[in-house]
């Protein structure tokens, strides 16, 4: 079987190609072609002798993907793609254009096993983890679009389909590879990882010493509501989760973001805002309120705008740093997993 090079660090590429007779310095050239230029065929690596390119093609492979379907927001702020890998597995990747720069949201698993009530990602269950290279391929796909527009990537959010910390090793490698100068040369401070709350992995991530932003999907002010919304809370209840977040903040010096999806009639009442303020008071944290993207398959509805404003005001009056996430892509099924679910149901428009 051929060896996959895409997703390897240059020292790993060197270890793979040297036994085939290639010089060690070729590894850096190959890495730059793969990651900085985004080539998907060895024959296109023009500064490598043709005989060596043919050899590489006979011994190694490069991960590829194709667009199964895509959706584009009317205001041009958001583009969502369903990318299919060579085994037929498909994942969502989103390009978000902000005033401060372009952000890419990547998926880390094919489907999701977390079973959160408000999310479409787990409607079809989890098929498998993505490899480091498969996660990176999503970014480079978007990078090519940005290059054609004369723009570039500014930040990376690991918030797409899947639980990133359940795919810990591959996600960690992905972040480290994105940081390498021969890859994206992206600062760790421009990376955000979102988790549903796997406490041991949060502690492990804190020990890595990477100054990335940790974003925790909280979505409830108490265990009763959170367990109803998120099955993971039965294993790692709020008390354990917040303690792990505090340890992360202490070790990294980074403020933790708590994501809170506002769901009509479930977690968006004024008394729940007051309860949340008590829960987070004194912590190095901020709250990102997210009016729910409707997910018909889950029976999810969003509260009205006045309820959202009241919830925000209650938090702010009690000293909690809180904002309402700017809505992007609501006209293109922006909730995680919706495009993939509809594609597999055969009702999504292909492009």
Index terms:
351 residues, DNA polymerase, domain 1, TIM Barrel, 2 domains, two-stranded parallel sheet, 14 strands
What is the topological layout?
Elements: E1 3-4, H1 10-17, H2 26-35, H3 50-59, E2 60-61, E3 65-72, E4 78-85, E5 90-98, E6 101-105, E7 109-110, E8 128-129, H4 132-148, E9 153-158, H5 168-179, E10 191-195, H6 199-208, E11 213-217, H7 223-229, H8 238-252, E12 256-262, H9 270-280, E13 285-291, H10 305-317, E14 322-324, H11 338-344
Helix pairs in contact: 1-2, 4-5, 6-8, 9-10
Write a structural description.
This protein has 351 residues and is of the alpha/beta class. The protein has helices at 10-17, 26-35, 50-59, 132-148, 168-179, 199-208, 223-229, 238-252, 270-280, 305-317, 338-344; strands at 3-4, 60-61, 65-72, 78-85, 90-98, 101-105, 109-110, 128-129, 153-158, 191-195, 213-217, 256-262, 285-291, 322-324. The chain contains 11 helices and 14 strands. It starts with a strand and ends in a 7-residue tail after the last helix.
**Largest sheet composition:** 10 strands, mixed
The value of Rg in angstroms is 21 Å
Q: What is the helix content? A: 25-40%
Instruction: Let me know the average pLDDT.
Output: 92
User: Could you tell me the strand content as a percent range?
Assistant: 15-25%
Spatial ordering of strands, largest sheet: 3-4-5-6-9-10-11-12-13-14
Envelope shape? elongated
Question: What is the total number of structural domains?
Answer: 2
Straight-line N-to-C gap: 33 Å
Briefly note the structural class of the backbone. Answer: alpha/beta
CATH architecture of the largest domain: Alpha-Beta Barrel
Kindly identify the CATH topology of the largest domain.
Answer: TIM Barrel
Number of strands: 14
H-E string? EHHHEEEEEEEHEHEHEHHEHEHEH
Name the CATH homologous superfamily of the largest domain. Answer: Aldolase class I
Annotation field: number of helices: 11
Poorly predicted ranges (pLDDT <50, ≥5 residues)? 347-351
According to CATH, what is the class of the largest domain?
Alpha Beta
């Amino acid at each position: 079987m051929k060896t996959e090079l895409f997703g390897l660090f240059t020292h790993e590429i060197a270890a793979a190609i040297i036994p085939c007779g290639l010089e060690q310095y070729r590894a850096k050239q190959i890495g730059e072609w793969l990651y900085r230029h985004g080539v998907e065929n060895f024959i296109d690596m023009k500064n490598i002798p043709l005989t060596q390119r043919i050899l590489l093609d006979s011994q190694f492979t490069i991960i590829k993907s194709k667009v199964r379907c895509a959706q584009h927001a009317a205001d041009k702020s958001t583009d969502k793609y369903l990318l299919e890998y060579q085994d037929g597995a498909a994942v969502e990747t989103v390009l978000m254009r902000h005033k401060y720069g372009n952000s890419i949201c990547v998926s880390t698993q094919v489907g999701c096993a977390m079973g959160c009530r408000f999310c479409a990602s787990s409607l079809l269950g989890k098929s498998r983890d993505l490899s480091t290279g498969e996660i990176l391929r999503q970014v480079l796909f978007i990078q090519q679009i940005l290059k054609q527009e004369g723009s570039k990537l500014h930040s990376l959010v690991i918030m797409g389909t899947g639980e990133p910390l359940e795919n810990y090793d591959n996600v960690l490698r992905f972040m480290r590879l994105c940081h390498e100068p021969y890859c994206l040369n992206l600062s760790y401070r421009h990376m955000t990882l979102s988790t549903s709350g796997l406490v041991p992995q949060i502690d492990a991530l804190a020990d890595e010493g990477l100054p990335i932003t940790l974003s925790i999907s909280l979505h409830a002010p108490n265990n009763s509501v959170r367990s109803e919304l998120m099955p993971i809370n039965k294993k790692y209840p709020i008390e354990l989760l917040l303690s792990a977040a505090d340890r992360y903040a202490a070790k990294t010096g980074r403020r933790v973001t708590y994501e809170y999806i506002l769901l009509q009639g479930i977690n968006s009442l004024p008394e729940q805002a007051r309860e949340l303020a008590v829960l987070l008071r004194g912590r190095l944290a901020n709250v990102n309120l997210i009016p729910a993207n409707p997910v018909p398959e889950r029976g999810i509805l969003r509260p009205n705008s006045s309820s959202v404003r009241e919830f925000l005001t209650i938090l702010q009056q009690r000293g909690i740093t809180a904002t309402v996430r700017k809505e992007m892509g609501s006209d293109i099924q922006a909730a995680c997993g919706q495009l993939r679910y509809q594609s597999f149901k055969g009702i999504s428009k292909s492009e």
